[in-house]
């Protein structure tokens, strides 16, 4: 398992992209909307991992609710795995709970599953696998 990306919830991709382009000295390599999750994303490469900016595309999305409750900031840590199905089973045996045990299509050509923050000391953890 390796750190794949850090997800940051933002109110405005336009404002945040400008900030991160200045901070990192480069443009995002990918922008994508995931309709099912009500989110638009922007990705930046940072060495071996990435930063994912997440903007709500509707008021009922998990990102909109997160920002309403906690404000902008770090939303999740994502770890890349070779086989997401095997990793879900391993983590369940270790006592971790998942928000959903069935991986879903995520941004950046990934299958994703989220561990429930109640089982990870309040941190939302994503595991992700590159889709074939």
TrEMBL record:
PROSITE patterns: VOC. One of its GO terms (molecular function) is metal ion binding. Keywords: Isomerase, Metal-binding. Coiled coil: none annotated. InterPro entries: Glyas_Bleomycin-R_OHBP_Dase, MeMalonyl-CoA_epimerase, MMCE/EMCE_epimerase, VOC_core. GO terms for biological process: L-methylmalonyl-CoA metabolic process. It comes from the Bacteria. Signal peptide: none annotated. It is an enzyme of class 5 (isomerase). Its EC number is 5.1.99.1. The keyword Phosphoprotein does not apply. Residues 2-130 form the VOC domain. PANTHER family: METHYLMALONYL-COA EPIMERASE, METHYLMALONYL-COA EPIMERASE, MITOCHONDRIAL. Belongs to the methylmalonyl-CoA epimerase family. This is Methylmalonyl-CoA epimerase. It comes from Chryseobacterium aquaticum.
